[in-house]
């Protein structure tokens, strides 16, 4: 940890660098990115990320919110509001949320990522210090979104610290998070995440339907929790417990992959957001997948693009750890559906050439409005997942160049002025045009054109993974 004086000097130095970059770019009349290739755009995007994160740190520090509140999504003002008498924050400012917010860990995880860009120890320590300040309050979290708030925060802490006791503490935090996920469900206590008979992680929940029946509920948003189990299994000294975690993670992915979306018309492999299973032993449909629901998609039976992106990320990670061919097949299906339903692939006059950012709901775009809002966070998550998969594929795998081409085109678009915020803008997020939630499907939404902290995390993750992939390719 830096002392207060050194930390302040480091912050001032980094802020001055950001200010100089801002001044240089502000005098240019055209977007400087228009003349850059993808590699140069990535360098620019990472510099911008540092700038935006320093601005965020400054803002939260001025309000004494470091380690207390977390960026969630940015504010957006409109010309009219029914609550016009209420004071609203300026557009583009992070709306702070508590540590219990589902993606609070994305911000300290981003700060750890920034430290990898630095070569000087003092600058690394600047990012480490704030990553720890925002990471520590998440240590005892035991909610559903374990990977984002646990593994992505405490794994880099484990990797970067040199203190052996500190390393042990981070490892135990990660292992405990995995134990929470792998705990078998106990119907008498209504505790535990893993339903052994069904083979999936989830929870008991009354469906939104009107029958008032409680079922075993599986949420697509939580599927990336398999990464927590798989990484922890590789680092758990207890081989029996480690094997149990690995088996449960793989079984969860297979169960979801073989049910979510599979009951549709042949060839339609888009996923659903919520799935319900019959966990009543006396029922004639015991252990069967019963029905699906949507929450953030257009309808119950449509494909919400961020849900599809979560599936892509999770299945790619699961294959990376397990090398199970059936998981690769599920990942391929998920990616191919995503790729074939992007605006660039729409048919006829619905097509938007060279547009590789998914609409917030694929079916809504195809059936109602092909120009509906895009979700930059879904693109970032999907590409981050695909970049986890590509290095595991043989060089002669025909899918490899196709997927890499999609990665390049998507990152090129995400680093354009349409999606990447400007250095001199007041926007505090790295990416813009994220769609958190689209209430009532087609109503104007304050939450469907925002900066999203999870979008920023997976975007930077994808940029760094792409750099590593290109670097390793040059060495081959």
From TrEMBL:
Domain of life assignment: Bacteria
Alphabetized InterPro entries for the sequence: 6-hairpin_glycosidase_sf, 6hp_glycosidase-like_sf, UG_Glycosaminoglycan_Hydrolase
GO-annotated molecular function: chondroitin hydrolase activity
UniProt record, GO biological process: polysaccharide catabolic process
Keyword annotations of the record: Hydrolase
Keyword Lipid biosynthesis: no
Record-stated family: Belongs to the glycosyl hydrolase 88 family.
Identification of the protein by name: Glucuronyl hydrolase
Organism encoding this protein: Aphanothece hegewaldii CCALA 016
């Amino acid at each position: 940890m830096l002392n207060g004086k050194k930390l302040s000097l480091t912050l001032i130095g980094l802020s001055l660098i950001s200010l100089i970059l801002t001044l240089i770019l502000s005098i240019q009349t055209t977007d400087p990115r228009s003349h850059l290739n993808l590699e140069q755009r990535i360098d620019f995007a990472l510099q911008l990320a540092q700038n935006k994160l320093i601005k965020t740190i400054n803002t939260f520090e001025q309000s004494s919110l470091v380690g207390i509140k977390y960026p969630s999504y940015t504010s957006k003002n409109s010309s009219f509001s029914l609550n016009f008498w209420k004071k609203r924050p300026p557009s583009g400012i992070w709306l702070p949320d508590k540590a219990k917010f589902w993606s609070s860990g994305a911000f300290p995880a981003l700060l750890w990522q920034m430290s990898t860009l630095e070569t000087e120890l003092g600058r690394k320590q600047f990012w480490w210090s704030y990553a720890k300040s925002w990471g520590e309050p998440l240590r005892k979290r035991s909610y559903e979104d374990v990977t984002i708030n646990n593994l992505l925060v405490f794994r880099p802490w484990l990797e970067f610290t040199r203190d052996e006791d500190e390393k042990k503490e981070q490892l135990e935090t990660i292992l405990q998070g995995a134990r929470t996920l792998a705990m078998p469900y106990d119907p008498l206590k209504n505790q535990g995440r893993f339903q052994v008979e069904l083979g999936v992680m989830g929870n008991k929940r009354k469906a939104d339907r009107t029958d008032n029946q409680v079922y075993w509920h599986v949420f697509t948003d939580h599927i990336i929790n398999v990464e927590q189990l798989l990484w922890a299994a590789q680092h758990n000294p207890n081989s029996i417990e480690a094997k149990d975690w690995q088996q449960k993670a793989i079984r969860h992915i297979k169960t979801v992959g073989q049910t979510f979306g599979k009951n549709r018309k042949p060839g339609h492999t888009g996923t659903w957001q919520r799935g319900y299973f019959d966990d009543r032993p006396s029922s004639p449909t015991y252990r069967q997948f019963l029905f699906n629901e949507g929450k953030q998609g257009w309808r119950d039976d449509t494909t919400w693009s961020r849900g599809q992106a979560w599936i892509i990320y999770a299945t790619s990670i699961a294959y990376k750890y397990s090398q199970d061919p059936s998981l690769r097949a599920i990942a391929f299906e998920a990616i191919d559906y995503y790729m074939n339903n992007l605006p660039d692939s729409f048919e006829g006059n619905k097509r938007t050439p060279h547009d590789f950012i998914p609409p917030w709901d694929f079916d809504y775009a195809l059936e109602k409005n092909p120009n509906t809002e895009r979700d930059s966070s879904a693109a970032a998550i999907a590409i981050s997942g695909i970049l986890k998969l590509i290095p595991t594929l043989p060089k002669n795998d025909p899918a490899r160049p196709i997927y890499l081409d999609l990665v390049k085109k998507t990152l090129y678009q995400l680093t354009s002025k349409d999606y990447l915020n400007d250095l001199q803008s007041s926007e505090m997020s790295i990416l813009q045009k994220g769609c958190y939630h689209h209430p009532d499907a087609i109503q104007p939404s304050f939450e469907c054109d925002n900066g999203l902290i999870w979008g920023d995390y997976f975007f930077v993750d994808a940029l760094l993974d792409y750099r590593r992939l290109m670097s390793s390719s040059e060495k081959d």
